[in-house]
Design a protein that fits this description.
By secondary structure, the chain is of the alpha/beta class. The protein has 13 helices and eight strands. The chain folds into two domains: about 240 residues, TIM Barrel; about 35 residues, no CATH class. About 50% of the residues lie in helices and about 10% in strands. Helix 2 packs parallel to helix 4, helix 5 runs parallel beside helix 6 and helix 6 packs parallel to helix 8. The longest helix has 20 residues.
């Protein structure tokens, strides 16, 4: 899957990878035809722990969610791995754990730990030397050279555009396969990264309600980017629907007015491939009768 992800990022057409926060969401996104799935770190922590994205999730919790997602889709899955869950030595184990469950790649960010959401103020970055050490550790730890190491640059808000571009070049030189430019605030900044020739393909983050203006995939492609993630779109759609549905049930005492906004039982069963499991039971379990 790492080799496939590399091909998609290197292709002439930009890779659009929406974010999944759980396995059934990943199924829906893969069925919609997207060539790769991004496991959102914020969505993982928000959905599974009910907590903010401030380094409160553990390596085990992230890997467990990644494993569930990988199991149910046939496209590459790449993941948020925060700051690597520690220093460069911890990064070694982080890479190995994610790789063991079939993930195609992951990204590490250059923030101090505990990190903050990339689109919030108050971020602090580690030194270039510390981050390049993490990248070198990640590259050496992977068992397959196809596993994709993505370096996220959070330095724009802290140090300015040129320093962020310089960091991107240093990270690529240290071995990062892809550079993730986080929380850019203008289209001109994206074009500046694209023109800088940092030495690795570029990945953009098109999140909602953040610092980045709403841009299309084709605009990112024109700026020189090879991939763009939409990490929290599915989670935010789900959350709004549940909030509105809960309010309606509390008000009226029935969900009947919400039925046209729900997936039907048949639609759910199709997404989770229920008929295949019925078939397994018919083939392998004796005395089950008619299902």
């Amino acid at each position: 899957m790492g080799a496939r992800l590399r091909e998609l990022i290197a292709a002439p057409e930009i890779l659009v990878a929406p974010g999944a926060y759980d396995a059934i969401t990943a199924r829906v996104l893969a069925r919609a035809g997207f060539g790769a799935i991004y496991m959102t770190g914020a969505g993982t922590v928000n959905a599974h722990l009910g907590l903010p994205d401030i380094a409160l999730g553990t390596l085990d919790e992230f890997v467990e969610n990644a494993a569930r997602i990988v199991e149910v889709v046939d496209v590459p899955v790449f993941c948020d791995a925060d700051t690597g869950f520690g220093n460069a030595v911890n990064v070694v184990r982080t890479i190995r754990r994610f790789e063991q469950v079939g993930v195609a790649g992951l990204h590490l960010e250059d923030q101090e730990s505990p990190k903050r959401c990339g689109h919030l103020d108050g971020k602090r970055t580690v030194s270039v030397g510390e981050m390049t050490g993490k990248i070198r550790a990640a590259c050496d730890a992977r068992r397959s050279d196809d596993f994709v190491i993505i370096a996220r640059v959070d330095a724009l808000a802290v140090e300015g555009l040129q320093a962020a571009v310089d960091r991107a070049g240093a990270y690529a030189e240290a071995g990062a396969d892809v550079i993730f430019t986080e929380a850019l605030t203008t289209y001109e900044q994206f074009k500046a990264f694209g023109a800088a020739g940092v030495g690795a393909p570029l990945l953009a983050n098109m999140t909602e309600f953040g610092k980045t203006p709403y841009l299309t995939a084709s605009q990112f492609e024109a700026a020189g980017y090879g991939a763009v993630i939409f990490p929290m779109m599915a989670f935010r759609l789900m959350l709004k629907a549940v909030v509105d549905g809960a309010a309606e049930l509390a008000r009226s005492g029935t969900q009947e007015a919400l039925l046209d906004r729900m997936a039907t039982r048949a639609e759910l069963y199709e997404i989770i491939d229920y008929p295949a499991w019925d078939d397994h039971e018919r083939r392998y379990v004796t005395d089950v009768g008619d299902l």
